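Contributing new complexes? Match this layout with manganese (II) ion.
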Amino acid sequence: MRKTMLAAACIFLSLPAAALEREPWPVFAGRRAQLLEKLSDGVTVLFGYTAGEGQSLRSSFRQESNFYYMTGWNEPGAVLLLTPPMKERNSPLYEQVNQMPRAVLYLPGRNAREERWTGPKIAPYDEGVRGKTGFEVVRGVELFERDLSQAVAGFGRIYTLKPRERAADREIEPRRIQTLEKIAPLAEIADARPSITSMRMIKTQGEIELIQKATDASVAAHLAAWKRAKPGLAEYQVAATMLGILLERGCERPAYSPMVGAGFNSTVLHYAENSGKMDAGQVLLMDVGGEYSLYATDITRTIPVGGKFSPRQREIYDIVLGAQNAALSAVKPGMSLARTGSNSLYQIAYQYINTHGKDREGNSLGKYFIHGLGHHVGLEVHDPSNADTTLTPGMVITLEPGIYIPEERIGVRVEDTILVTDNGARILSGALPRNPGDVERAMQ
Ligand SMILES: [Mn+2]
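Output block (do not edit by hand):
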């Protein structure tokens, strides 16, 4: 007994913390160069999350997504300053501004006491800090205020993240803007978000690979759930199987609260209690995806508890799948996820649903498709996108039609994460069966 415990302790101590995978540093440097070109008439300031902002008792530290996208930096308390070259040769500030480094990463100083709690961190004056950060210039965060004051004098404008209308972090960003207004009271504060968003919408090869890894782990989680889901089991037990596999395969966490709902619960769009029991004859809807090295995926499948769809469940499933296939075959550059317009994929899916099948009253089923067709996926499961975006090669989106009929206790959604290619789409979650017969077979 003692010996076993000792052995267990040794194994535990010798296991390194799971290292996040990251694109090579030059990719991030390239993004900063691109942003400097886009926002060439002002300095850009991005704040990484502090320890308090990026973590809670319930989760480990995770960087703010825009900051991570520009830096690849996942430690707390960092700040990014981008200073474009000044073009006005006659300006008295020309020399001063153009001598400044274009990109500086500011890091908090070493805090040995803090590190006893949170582990060793990289500090600004560490030897080899350039190689450890991918930045030519790394400074202590105490120099940020001085540097920003000098840089902003040449432009009078600071680009930073302005709060979105419906933001989860709506307290953090206004606080940050107050900080900037204190340092540079005369500067105009402009929004860097649309420019960063337009970059984030087009994924690099490295990003696609990370999304694929999140997807592969999630496909494995779904397949295991199909084998586990048996009459009498609780929804949370199926969710537990899925979470276990996500973590086992190197995901840091699920990309969103897993939703596992049987029967009536399958018709509740954001059902995440997962507290019900499943019975034979019900459908079980599982919307579960992992986060791998900060990248998300988003997959939903609906399976028959007991292994075989009823004729009515199968009918509804076939309509949802038909709608997804109709949208899928229409995906190509120039199409759109918007609800309206001649290039709307939503309209294609909606029309399919609305012209196939009926409810108990003989009405068309369009009114039971109550959400959008899809969204972008990346560092966030609902990755940002600018208004009036048309699809472009390199975008990663979901296609997720659904029909939810509470009075019949049938909710069916089929959701895949796909890559927009030069002339169509590649289903990143294509390894997970979608056809109802294949789903039934995979459950055995
Ligand atoms: Mn989704």
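Reviewers usually confirm one structural detail per submission. For this one: Residues 298, 375, 398, 400, 415 surround manganese (II) ion (CB under 6 Å).
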